[in-house]
Write a structure and sequence with these properties.
CATH topology: Glycerol-3-phosphate (1)-acyltransferase
Largest sheet: 6 strands, mixed
Number of strands: 8
Helix content: 40-55%
Strand content: 5-15%
Number of domains: 1
Strand order of the largest sheet: 1-8-7-2-6-3
Length: 279
């Protein structure tokens, strides 16, 4: 019954909030207004419906005035509302370009200032990555899941390098984030909901100034190492520190930067049992 209840709440609450979110943006001409709805109204209700108790440590490492790329491991679809609550800043997720043309969802994401990356065409992909970097430099903070998919055993998978290409282009800090417990509450490819505790640890930001643009692999390894340490501190299983880089990653492509989600229209992806649409 809880599974059906969660599906109903996610769909109904998203449908109710969506028009008010868009109207608020239009009236205030401020994209941050929509993120207030997402962080304070949409996300808490989804966690309540799933019976999730969220425990967060390290919020002192978040500076809302500093544009930052937050990088997290990924266990479950419910990670998205968890991190909107856990990280006290107006976050956007990097989205693949196809979502821009989805009715309602694409309109909302465009109005809210979500960066889009086109991975179908290399030239367009590089241009869109540069545009995303420019938005970040202007003050937009984003969250990415560089594993590219949700972990099915809780261990942290190898990272794609696209997120770190983006960070090096934008020249902004990276903040490591670890999440544990969400995969048990709502496993990958499942709507079986088991109420429980979800723990999040936010690490200290990493200054990319010492890294050249050619150091993306070095930066990827360091960020992943720190996330693994944070994850272990939360009681997560051991992950292979050496198996750091995804074999499928193309170091000249932004594909790996496209790990995120798209609230409040997330109900479209969660109701299908799939993870974030831009994983």
């Amino acid at each position: 019954m809880r599974n059906l209840f969660c599906m109903f709440v996610a769909a109904a609450w998203t449908t109710i909030l969506f028009p008010f979110t868009c109207l608020a943006m239009l009236l205030t001409w401020d994209a941050g207004t929509s993120l207030w709805f997402v962080r304070h109204l949409w996300s808490p209700v989804l966690l309540w419906a799933g019976g999730a108790k969220l425990v967060v440590q390290g919020r002192e490492n978040v500076d809302p005035k500093r544009p930052t790329i937050y990088v997290s491991n990924h266990q479950s679809t419910i990670d998205i509302p968890c991190l909107f609550i856990a990280v006290p800043v107006n976050l956007r997720y990097v989205a693949k370009m196809q979502l821009k043309y989805v009715p309602f969802l694409g309109w909302y994401m465009t109005l809210a200032g979500y960066p889009f990356v086109d991975r179908a065409n290399h030239r367009a992909a590089v241009a869109s990555l540069d545009e995303a970097g420019a938005r970040i430099r202007k003050g937009v903070s984003i969250m990415v899941y560089p594993e590219g998919t949700r972990s099915d055993d809780g261990r942290i998978k190898p990272f794609k390098k696209g997120s770190f290409v983006l960070a090096l282009k934008a020249r902004v800090a990276i903040c490591p984030v670890a999440i544990e417990g969400s995969g048990r509450l709502m496993p990958k490819n499942s709507w079986k909901i088991t109420p429980g505790e979800i723990r999040v640890a936010i690490g200290k930001p990493i200054d990319v100034a010492p890294y050249a643009e050619s150091d993306r692999e070095k930066l990827t390894r360091e960020v992943r190492r720190q996330i693994i340490e944070l994850h272990r501190s939360l009681g997560g299983p051991d992950s292979d520190v050496d198996d750091a880089i995804s074999a499928r990653a193309d170091e000249n492509s932004p594909r790996g930067a496209e790990e995120g989600g798209s609230p409040p229209a997330q109900a479209e992806s969660t109701s299908s049992g799939k993870g974030p649409a831009v994983a």
